[in-house]
Amino acid sequence: MIKVIVAEDKHPILRNLVKKIEGYNSQLHVIGEASDGMTAFEMCLRLKPHIVFTDIRMPGMDGLELIKQLKEACPETIFVIISGYSDFEYARQAIQLGVKEYMLKPVTQHAMDEVLERVTLLALSQYGAKEQQYISDLLKGRHISTPPFMPEAENKPYHVLIICVGAISKFHIDLANPYHDVWFKFDMPRFLANIRFIAYDNAWVFDGEAMNEIVVVFRCGTESAFPTEPLYEAFYQAFSQQQEHFFTFAMSNRIEKLCNLKLEYQLTRMILSHNAVFGMSKLIQVGDYALNAPNLIDPDKSFDKQKLLSFMKNNNKEALLSEIKLCLADWERSKLSQISIELCLTHMLQCMCQAMLHQNIVSRDLKLELDEVISISKDYLSLFRNVSFLFEKFFHHAQGSLDSASNSVKNAIEIVDQYLQDHMADEITIADIADMVNFNVSFLSREFKKIKGISPIEYLTQLRIEKAKRLILESSNHKFKDIGYMVGYSNPYYFSKVFKLVTGLTPSDYKNANVTTEYKE
User: Ranges for the HTH araC/xylS-type domain (predicted)?
Assistant: First the structure.
């Protein structure tokens, strides 16, 4: 709803203008009419309109003075002057005040429609940005200013949708995740715009808490039940045409009060994390799940502990890995949740550490390693490949081969380091790098981090962003999208997102901040 105030001292003209404005479309709502400047001024301060149509010559305060006085109090309000005078001086002052349109009387419907088309698009753009920021602040628990909605909009029901593609990632910046760029390939706003069976007033799309997530907030237009299942099916069909990945689709309860948005968002996220099934797409409707439901699997019963320990003590690596593969196959058939798989694998590794009396075989960051392994796994087959290296360490330790292999590992890491520096502008994946030195992805990531302090993908990102920062400051001729391409990011939006994740600033903000600093110095 776009709020409009009209100020005109001649009543017949005032009524005619209001009729033309409200007849344009249902988005425009004239919330105030004034026949003098002072009344218009007080009305604008109280009602905060998006658009003000004003005559120039009015009693009390003329239109130009009205605009001048309102500029500080209502900086985003769009002003349109309607005057019977084509005097150049009026037009010059109007331009100086930032007036968007200057119309001459008598105003025809055609002329009004042309102006309304332009100012409506501008108002929607400004209004939409404020709504987007307001919803974002609610989700993140930030300090909230005055809602930019009409009162009736606040009282409508809302829903929060979280979609996670692939495994749930515990890392906000997770460039090793195979789905870190999935939302740059699938156009969610366009998908929502093409959905005809959902009666919603608006939908806002946000980044999730990991790069493979997306969050959508719906404001519903009716009191009927939200069609979650049809929406899930429509998304499944559209998404599967472009991507062959599993995803978890979690829809919140109905939110009657906007102030409860954050609470319901957190609840939806918690239900998702407890019930997402690894390797399989799933619809989760929060109302169907209990928050405190116990884990459905006992880690002690998820594998044959004595059999695995026997294989390990007899140095039978192939048999142990085969048994783990059987366990994973059984978990896949049982459709275990990701959190259950994490629990079982953690317990399995801890049992083996305790049996070997060398708890330091697995790094102190055991949980972090498992989180990394699961986040980079596309399915159970890749999960088995990635987790195998965690178990193979026990055999390296038993054979005393870790020290003898350390030099060759260090040499391989230095080769990877040099390759990343020389080819940062190329399209590089962690799998390609691992194949180059005949390492498993998780093994390479772990060993690289031991030596360099960060993972290879984080290292590559660091190299790229550092070079991008230099190019931004050194060159005024290159566009940001060209700089992104020069450091390995073919998608300018993805480059901007990664740049902001790493530096806290967009490329343009970074450039402006440094230019300002240099100027002050």
Answer: 414-513
CA distance 291 to 294: 9
Amino acid, single-letter form, for residue 250? A
Q: Taking a C-beta distance cutoff of 8 angstroms, is the pair 112, 86 a contact? A: no
User: How do beta strands 282-285 and 247-251 pair?
Assistant: parallel
Dihedral (C-alpha) 497, 498, 503, 508: value to the nearest 10 degrees? -50
- Please give the single-letter amino acid code of residue 504: G
Q: Provide the whole-model pTM.
A: 0.72
10 Å Cβ neighbour count for 156?
20
H helices present in 197-297, as ranges: 228-242, 261-275
415: its two tokens: 């080769």
Total length of the chain: 521
Number of C-beta neighbours around residue 368 at 10 A: 14
Residue 148 structure tokens: 């930019």
Model confidence over 270-302: pLDDT tens digits? 999 999 999 999 999 998 987 766 556 788 888
pLDDT value for 150: 54
Nearest partner of 308 among 338, 350, 340, judged by Cα = 350
